[in-house]
């Protein structure tokens, strides 16, 4: 009986943490849906069927537990050491996020790709565009993208990566649709500016942002002040991710 209770508690705990991390990806996916061209919207629907971009956005995390996808674990991130650019940085032989964004784009553009391959590639692409806009998915090569940077988030043990993946967003107690409704306002000039950059430039942008988000003076406990300081940046990164994902899909399916 005790084992059942403990196992259930652990399952609920891990599921809750995982679900909170999904909110950001779904925000990016929903914003992208809002900015698709009519043709791109039809093509995405043809590939995904009844699965929305927002729901498809978390699939790549869902399959982490499937051994068949172990080779994709390194795809979620890239490393750009402080003082270097993406172009100057050593690339993982297992693949990394910028390279894989480009690979999925090419697969989707290839008319000979099967429908099954296109569906998988589209799910990968949706997720990876979200990942690259989380600044700590462009790591400095020293602390596993902030995973080794231990912090107390309010009164709980955490790390900087987890705080940016989920806890800053989860702390607002908003659904992904509520966040989208509150931030999806962007001018055509800004859309053109954001969509005019390449995935490599997105990585450089995230690396620059990454340098600004480590707590000052190595603070080990953060909470309301940190959340207030960076919430606007979190929202902007989510919005950029969605607008850029829409741009990529509009280009693929033009």
Automatic annotation (TrEMBL):
It comes from the Bacteria. One of its GO terms (biological process) is DNA catabolic process. Residues 1-19 form the signal peptide. GO terms for molecular function: endonuclease activity; hydrolase activity, acting on ester bonds; metal ion binding; nucleic acid binding. Keywords: Disulfide bond, Endonuclease, Glycoprotein, Hydrolase, Metal-binding, Nuclease, Signal. InterPro entries: PLipase_C/P1_nuclease_dom_sf, S1/P1nuclease. PANTHER family: ENDONUCLEASE 4. This is S1/P1 Nuclease.
């Amino acid at each position: 009986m005790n084992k059942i209770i403990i196992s259930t508690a652990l399952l609920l705990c891990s599921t809750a943490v995982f679900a909170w991390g999904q909110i950001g990806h779904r925000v990016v996916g929903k914003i992208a849906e809002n900015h698709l061209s009519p043709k791109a919207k039809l093509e995405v629907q043809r590939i995904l069927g009844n699965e929305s971009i927002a729901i498809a956005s978390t699939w790549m995390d869902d399959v982490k537990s499937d051994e068949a996808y172990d080779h994709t674990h390194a795809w979620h991130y890239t490393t750009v050491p402080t003082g270097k650019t993406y172009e100057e940085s050593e690339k993982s032989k297992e693949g990394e996020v910028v390279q894989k964004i480009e690979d999925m784009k090419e697969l989707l553009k290839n008319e000979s790709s099967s429908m099954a391959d296109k569906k998988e590639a589209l799910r990968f692409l949706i997720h990876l565009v979200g990942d690259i806009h989380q600044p700590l998915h462009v790591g400095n090569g020293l602390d596993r993208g902030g995973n080794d940077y231990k912090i107390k988030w309010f009164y709980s043990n955490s790390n900087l990566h987890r705080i940016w993946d989920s806890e800053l967003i989860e702390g607002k107690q908003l659904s992904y649709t509520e966040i989208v409704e509150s931030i999806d306002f962007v001018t055509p000039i800004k859309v053109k500016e954001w969509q005019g950059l390449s995935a490599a430039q997105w990585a450089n942008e995230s690396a620059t942002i990454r340098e600004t988000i480590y707590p000052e003076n190595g603070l080990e406990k953060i909470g309301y002040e940190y959340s207030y300081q960076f919430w606007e940046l979190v929202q902007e990164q989510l919005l950029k991710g969605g607008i850029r994902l829409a741009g990529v899909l509009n280009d693929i399916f033009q």
